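Changelog entry

Holo records now carry the ligand SMILES as an explicit input line rather than a separate metadata file. Below, a converted record for calcium ion, shown in the new format.
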Amino acid sequence: MSFSFSKVCYLLVLTASMWACKNKNAVPEMQAPPPILASEHCYSGDTPWGEGGADIYLADVKKIEPDPVESKNKAGMVWVEGGTFNMGSDGPEARPDEQPIHPVKVKGFWMDQTEVTNAQFARFVAATGYVTTAERAIDPKTLAEQLPPGTPLPSAEELAPASLVFQLAVNNGQPLGPADWWRMQKGANWQQPQGPGSSIKGKEAWPVTQVSWYDAVAYCRWAGKRLPSEAEWEWAARSGGKSNKYAWGNEAVSPKFANYFEGSFPVEQSKADQFPRCAPIKSFQSNALGLYDMAGNVWEWCADWYRNDHYKQCLALGKTSSDPQGPADSYDPEEPSTPKKVVRGGSFLCNDSYCSGYRCAARMKTSPDTGLEHTGFRCVRAAD
Ligand SMILES: [Ca+2]
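Structure line, unchanged by the conversion:
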C-alpha cells in the first residue's frame, strides 16, 4: 500500500467535493499521463542539483547566499565513502516504484548525522529573514497549475497560511485515506507545528518539520550544503550500499530501532509508544556510518523529482548510473496533475501495516510546496 500527499491534494479533495455538489454531471478531467521518457533522459547528469519547481518560491530561495562560516562548518557531518550498489528492492514488500533493482555508483560526500533541528533552522531564519512556504498564503497560480483543468479554486480564506497536521482517524467502517488523518491547520508552521498554541520551545533538538522542499533547499544554500540525491540517500541509509532491508540490519522493526507508529494506523496509537510524534534527534542508535534516524522520525526531502517508473528507465540504460540526479520531470499516477519530489526514510507515522517507509528502499513522494508535521530533511556537501 502506498501513500502520497500534497497540500494541493487536500484542497483538491475539498474543491472536488464542492464541485461535485454543485455540478452533479460535471467531473473535472484529469490530465493525460505524460509520455514515458526516452532512456537518455534518465539520470540527466547536466540537471543542476535541486533546481526546478514553482518560480514564486524559487525566486526567494535563490536570494539566499551561503553563509561564509556555515559553509566551512562540518560539525555534525560524517564522510560517506562512495561506491557502487544495487539500488531498489525486489523483496516481498517491494512496491512497484522500488523495482527493478539497478546498479548505481555514487561519489563520496559529507552528510548531516541527524535531521536538521529546530535550533539549526531557527539560526538560518534569524540570519536571513526567510519566510517558509507554510507561513505564506497559498499562491492561486501555483495551485491552479496542479489542479485538473476546470477545477474551481478554493476561496481566499481557504488559501490562508496553513499546513498539514496529523490527527488520528475515526474508524467509520469505510476505507480511510490521507484526508481522514491529515488536517489543514491554519497557522501551523515550523514554529508551531500543530498550529496556534503549539510551540517548539524546549524542542530545540527535535527535527524541524512543516518545511516545504523549497524551505529545505533555502536552508541548504545558507549552510553551503545541498539536499542529497535519492541515490545518495539510499546508499547512506544502507551504510554504504549494504543489501540489508533496514538501516539497522534485517531484524523486524521495534521500538529499539526507530521512531515509528506503534498501534493500529491510523486509528489507534499504542500507549506504549514513547514518541507519539517526533523524537529528539539521536534518540535511537545510528547506522554503521553514524547516521541517525535514517529510518523513521521524519521523512527527509531529497533533491530528485519523483517518477513511479524511474527505475525501469534506469535499468533500460544498460549500464551503471553514475551520480544520478533523478528524472527530468515528475509523474505520480496517484495524482497525475501534481509534480512531486522524493522523500525518504519514513516517519513516526509509518508501520508495517501501512507504508513501512523505514525500509532502506522505500520511496515516497510529496509536492514541493507542501509542509507536513512528519517531514523534515538533512543536508549533504561534496568533498572539499
Ligand atoms: Ca528520518
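Spot-checked after migration. The radius of gyration is 20 Å. Residues 13-51 have pLDDT under 50 and may be disordered.
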